[in-house]
Amino acid sequence: MAPGQKLYPRATVKKIVKAHSGCNVSKNVDVMIFLDYVLFMQTLMKEATIEAKQGGERGVTARSVRKVTGDTLAKFKG
Amino acid sequence: MARESHPPGRNPAPDPDTPVRRAISAEPGSVAASSRLSFSIRTPASQGRNLTLNRSVQGLSASGRKAGAGAASATPHARAAFRTIDSRRAAISTPHLANRRRSVREARETPRDVLRNLGKALAKTSEAIKSSSSSPKSPKPADDTILEERPSQFLDDDDDEDLPKRPRLSLPIDVDEDDDDELRPHRSAGLEDEDLTMRSVEMPRRAYSEQPARLSTGSVRISDYYGRGGEAPDDEDGIDPGFFPPRAPIPEEDFGFDDDGPSYDRSGFDMARRDTLGRASDFGLEVPLDMANESTVMLAPQLEDSPMRPPPEDFAPMFDQRSDDDDDDGDNNADMEGFPDPVSEPEEDNEVETVAEARTPVTATVTAKSAITKRGSSTKETIKRTKRISRHSIEYPSLPAGVVKRLAQTFAKTSGAKGKINPETLKAIIQASDWFFEQIGEDLEAYAKHAHRKTIDESDMLTLMKRQRQTSSHMTPFALAQRHLPRELLQELRMTPPVAPKKRRRASVGEDPEVT
Fold first, then answer.
1. Separation between Cα atoms, residue B36 and residue B78, nearest integer Å
2. ipTM more than 0.95?
3. Highest-confidence segment of A65-69, B193-197, B204-208, B275-279
4. Which of A24, B9, B345, B504 could make an SS bond with B455 (beta carbons 3.0 to 4.6 A apart)?
5. Which of B337, B415, B430, B485 to mutate to test the interface with A (most CBs of A within 10 A)?
6. Under an 8 A CB cutoff, do A29 and B458 touch?
7. Cα A74 from chain centroid (whole Å)
8. Domain residue spans of chain A
9. Mutate which of A24, A32, A61, A71 to test chain B, going by most B C-beta atoms within 10 A?
10. In the CATH hierarchy, which fold is given to the domain comprising A10-75?
11. Tens digits of per-residue pLDDT, B343-368?
12. Residue A38: which of B222, B336, B484 has the nearest Cβ?
């Protein structure tokens, strides 16, 4: 995370989770959720990069991302 | 002293001096010496056991040496024993480096020497083999002794070894041919009789579902997906679970954006989920299907967007979210305020609309993949809808594209990808993160409900992360946070003092086996 930049929209994260769960979200959970999201993104991009390299693509493409999305989501299923 | 390190076969001359000295210094070798004596019984010098006993009392090394050396017919074992004892003695008594090394080398090289000698022996009889280049180099006198010692068994062994090799070379070829001949009729027979089961629809699907099972619980999760895929449309807004047929009329309805709000998510969601499952195609067509899926998603924007600036379509929801901020915050005002979205929305919104309008002809033109393209077009058009509705009928925004992009770019760089993330990729990533939040929300809800709570607690999140295998005994959530979160957020976590100790306890205890 680049320093000095805006962090992340906590309100948005909270709202998203709240909408999906139908529950209230207690105070600092959204930080944890965002942490989890960061981890998810890390995994996703790593997998996508590997996939792209295996497919001989240059850089990460939408195709590679889509291809690994399912697996990565499954990995982050609680 | 150097004398003593020589092999006894070479040095038959007895030393008058050594017994005196040895008797003092040769304690380590005493055991071996006694054994040596037992060997030397045969030798002419020691014809009685009484004699050997006397010798052992007198001077170990000298007597042993004499006996061993005098006996040219000593057994190879005895000679080896002599050699080791000599080398040991040399190492003890003489600090000479060269001597020590040499003795060690002798001991070490004996197997190789055997080979060398064997090469020599062969070279006399048959000169054809010059491949063993080491054979001419035999700098040591010990080689000769060994050559003498080693009987001709080795020659025989080599001959034996050579013989089986040739048949091996020839055999595999024959075997393969034989196998092919045998197999062909079998296969055809199998095809005629029962191969229908072999190629039935079930096999490849299972194989595929097991394939991503590097997750230990892969199968369970996939079954979850199945459940989900069925549930989701029902829960949402009454879209039929068999959504392919009803999806067709949607493009016409799309322009009134009130009804179909979540259809974008749903359709895309289900499609992708299906891809992740055993795909509908069971004959290993995974890649083509995937491609088709992509092309449909990508086709429209490529065709239509090229004249304009290619806009990331998912900016639209972000725009909405901004408008939301005031409405929904009710509970958490203290935390949430003051995060306006930095992106300029109005232009993009317009563009999205134009794109969506321009997309309808595409659906008309493409006939072959009509269903898919229609779905794609519908997704594109629903994008302009400001809000998605979760299954609890709560509107929700998606994460601002700027944040997602920044994160994605950071991680792409760290994982070694070059170049920037283009809008298409960003769209896919945003979609993935939407799904991620949905999944997380449902999981957290399950945990909270299981604990009869109505608020999602930190314990839920810790449980979730534990179940995701993100945290474990050696990776505390706080360490993860320290690694991945900026300092401000870390402080937020740290602010509540009991949290850190609680974390671990709860994470260890609070796992619900029932909730999945």
1. 7
2. no
3. A65-69
4. A24
5. B415
6. yes
7. 12
8. 10-75
9. A32
10. Histone, subunit A (1.10.20)
11. 433 444 444 444 444 444 443 333 33
12. B484
